[in-house]
Specification:
Number of strands of chain A: 10
Shape of chain B: globular
Largest sheet of chain A: 6 strands, mixed
Largest interface: B-C, 38 and 33 residues
Helix content of chain B: 25-40%
Oligomer: heterotrimer
Largest sheet of chain B: 5 strands, mixed
Order of helices and strands of chain B: EEEEEEHEHEEHEEH
CATH architecture of chain A: 2-Layer Sandwich
Order of helices and strands of chain A: HEEEEHEEHEEHEEH
Strand content of chain B: 25-35%
CATH topology of chain A: Ribosomal Protein S5, domain 2
Radius of gyration of chain A: 19 Å
CATH architecture of chain B: 2-Layer Sandwich
CATH class of chain B: Alpha Beta
Number of domains of chain A: 1
Chains: A alpha+beta (about 260), B alpha+beta (about 240), C alpha+beta (about 230)
Number of domains of chain B: 1
């Protein structure tokens, strides 16, 4: 039920008390990410792939390009499909089987960031109007869950899209993959009234709520998602936006 | 329909509303016999039913929480609620909406009063015209009150967005489809605390702030209507009736 | 400072008062402010504030008398549905008020499935595990009579001020009534027509619980049926 696992009440109080003082368990600043690394193209069987590590959290994203029929209401658009799997090997709380609400939410938040920013020019992915288009499948594989899977996944997805090798198919006529923007998700957690970026797993397990804001290069927002049962005030949202915008620029720089 | 050239003409939207105007809103309380609480919301062409069962015994037992009740929410769309028949049963969208709906409501409910039990909230969209998740939350909050479930406040919910570069309240399906941005929001109105926030499309930082302002305004109207509907249902009737 | 009239209808989140008040069911405090948590009638007495709820399920309280239905049994007792989120446990020793040798005695002779039982709430622990007792006079298995179920929140209206409504029902309706706090009511009468009239009256009380002059109307209705049939 709870993807963040159980943290002992002693640790819970400790984290909450630190937050009140503006401190964190791993001595980070509230606006500081853990170490972020982006490895491009680790998987040769995919058209594009990337492995992102944020601290000990590890996510792999793979892109496949395939022929598909367009959706009937969008005959002149390629298809984008994002799927996320919370693999049982990534956490003792993840179970095999159909994606649960956490996996579905994760996939849909990443999807919205890419779709709504029009990061991929889907109109260029039409082979024959109404009949044959390119489908871009982004599969997100959570390998190790130490918190902040959303930001890691969104970053891995964009990194994998940047890594796409053009398909060897006569139907492919574009000189390059039509990626036109780099949306980056930044999740801000709220603990004991304090906002902080990049929550670790133990921080996620005690947070009241989180807000993910996905921004593009010019700082404008293309997607948002609040999670958790807590709430945000208006001031907190505005503060979260400033954090998200600043941190997205840092993460985007890792994409090279 | 084809994309219209303009969605806002002379400051009016396609259905004649001003940018900051809600669609006609109707809330009815206690319309289902068997449920412990229920509500029906019409917002424009949206027709949404919410029912609350519980607190009741939690099945399966191993999902019981020893020190609190569990709130479960299910958002579902009727197959006939949309233009093209929707396949029955939960899809990814409805699973996600069910999750954020629960998270939008849970904060205000005094769950600790009912250890080991469950409170089930069922939301059924009978007819959809954009904004069904927010109409569902609005209905669910009233249904919870109708069930006698103790709460800190009545959660109110509405969507705001951007259409033709203008920030607007309560988008229709056409506006959602052809407009730029949709931002559903839910809040605890008394304290102006936001318990649901999603957004897709495009907002600058400034537009985001404007949209929040409009959302607060919209939720206030929804909140008034919710309380009014509850008062009407339970108003003391003096003297002989029937 | 009080922000509502006594007996005023309030809704969740509504400000009731500000200051040092004692807060009881249906209300909660945030700092100096007292708010309603349920739809109900504000009941302000001196420094005490509570909201009389108009809806909701029965939550067991120690000392309440309830009417349960046996839904399961085990070697030392029974499980009763008490029209609540929580079931009631009745041990055979709390029914018979004596030690029972479970090896020698077959307890199924005392209570069976679907039996209706008048019971007291002996204990409710913090996990809402409910222990019943049914050994006192007037408690235990119900013989004959009719079982009626109404909203538990309407029970105070069935009893009435100082038992006035209940007296009317019993005296004019010529029957004996046992009211469970959980909204279940047993009615015993010799005259089937009057018994049915009383049951009708109980549903009328439930329907019209928040109207005034109800006792008089119930009285009138029962008298009418009584004289009409003689």
């Amino acid at each position: 039920m709870n993807m963040y696992g159980i943290v002992s009440s002693v640790k819970r109080d400790y984290i909450a008390d630190l937050a009140r003082q503006g401190k964190r368990v791993d001595t980070r600043m509230l606006d500081q990410f853990r170490e972020v690394s982006v490895e491009s193209g680790p998987i040769k069987s995919a058209q594009g792939s990337a492995r992102v590590k944020i601290g000990k959290t590890q996510v792999l994203a793979g892109v496949k390009l395939e022929h598909a029929e367009p959706f009937s209401d969008r005959p002149d658009n390629g298809v984008l499909i994002v799927n996320a799997e919370l693999l049982p090997l990534a956490s003792p709380t993840f179970e095999p089987g159909r994606p649960d609400e956490n996996a579905i939410e994760l996939a849909r938040v990443v999807d919205r960031g890419i779709r709504e920013s029009e990061a991929i020019d889907l109109e260029k992915l039409v082979i024959k109007s109404g009949e044959d288009v390119w489908a871009v499948f982004i599969d997100i594989y959570a390998l190790d869950h130490d918190g902040n899977l959303i930001d890691a996944s969104a970053l891995a997805a964009i990194a994998a899209l940047l890594n796409v090798k053009l398909p060897e198919d006569e139907a492919w006529t574009l000189p390059e993959f039509p990626l036109q923007k780099k949306p980056v998700a930044v999740t801000v957690a709220k603990i004991n009234g304090k906002l902080m970026v990049d929550p670790r797993l133990d921080e996620e397990s005690v947070m009241d709520a989180r807000i993910t804001m996905t921004t593009i290069e010019d700082g404008s927002i293309c997607a948002m998602q609040k999670g958790g049962i807590g709430y945000f005030s208006r001031e907190e949202l505005e503060q979260a936006y400033e954090l998200a915008r600043a941190k997205a620029a840092e993460l985007r720089a890792k994409l090279g | 329909m084809e994309k219209p050239e303009k969605l806002i003409v002379d400051g009016k939207r396609l259905d004649g509303r001003a940018p900051d105007e809600l669609r006609p809103l109707k809330i009815e309380v206690g319309i289902l016999e068997r449920a412990n609480g229920s509500a029906y919301v019409e917002l424009g062409a949206n027709k949404v039913l919410a029912a609350v069962y519980g607190p009741r015994e939690m099945h399966p037992r191993h999902h019981q929480q020893p020190d609190t009740a569990v709130l479960r929410c299910r958002y579902n769309m009727a197959p006939f609620s949309v233009e093209e028949r929707k396949r029955p049963g939960p899809d990814r969208r409805s699973v996600e909406i069910s999750k954020v709906t629960r998270e939008a409501l849970e904060q205000v409910v005094f769950l600790k009063l009912y250890p080991r039990s469950v409170i089930d909230v069922f939301i059924e969209v009978l007819q959809a015209d954009a904004g069904t998740r927010t109409a569902g939350i609005t209905a669910a909050a009233v249904a919870l009150a109708d069930a006698g479930v103790p709460m800190r406040d009545i959660v109110s919910s509405i969507a705001v967005g951007k259409v033709d570069g203008t920030i607007v309240l309560d988008l229709t399906n056409d506006e959602d489809q052809w407009g730029t941005t949709d931002m559903p929001i839910a809040m605890v109105p008394r304290k102006k605390l936001i318990t649901l926030l999603q957004m897709d499309g495009h907002f600058t930082g400034e537009e985001f702030k404007q949209a929040l302002d409009l959302a607060f305004k919209g939720c206030e109207q929804i909140y008034d209507a919710q309380r009014q509907a509850l008062r009407e249902k339970y108003a003391i009737k003096r003297g002989n009736k029937k | 400072m009080i922000h509502v009239q006594n007996r005023e209808l309030v809704v969740p989140g509504q400000l009731i008062a500000e200051g040092d008040y004692q807060v009881y069911e249906g209300a909660f405090r945030e700092g100096k402010q007292v708010y309603a948590s349920v739809v109900g009638l504000a009941d302000v007495r001196g420094q005490n504030i509570r909201i009389i709820p108009l809806q909701g399920r029965y939550i067991p309280k120690r000392g309440d008398v309830v009417i349960g239905v046996v839904v399961d049994s085990h070697h030392s007792g029974w499980i009763l549905d008490i029209n609540s989120p929580y079931i009631g446990n009745l041990f055979v020793s709390d029914l018979l008020r004596r030690k029972v040798d479970l090896v020698r005695e077959d307890i199924s002779q005392y209570l069976g499935m679907d039996d209706v039982v008048v019971a007291g709430i002996k204990e409710v622990n913090e996990r809402m595990r409910v222990q019943l007792e049914a050994g006192e006079p007037g408690m235990g298995r119900v013989e004959g009579g009719k079982l009626v179920e109404i909203s538990p929140m309407k029970v105070p209206r069935v009893i009435g001020r100082k038992g006035s409504m209940l007296n009317t029902l019993q005296n004019v309706g010529e029957c004996r009534i046992n009211v469970g706090q959980n909204g279940r009511i047993m009615v015993w009468g010799k005259n089937p027509r009057m018994t049915n009239a009383v049951i009708e009256a109980l549903f009328m009380i439930e329907r019209e619980a928040h109207t005034s002059g109800l006792t008089d109307r119930v009285h009138l209705m029962l008298e009418k049926i009584k004289s009409g049939g003689k």
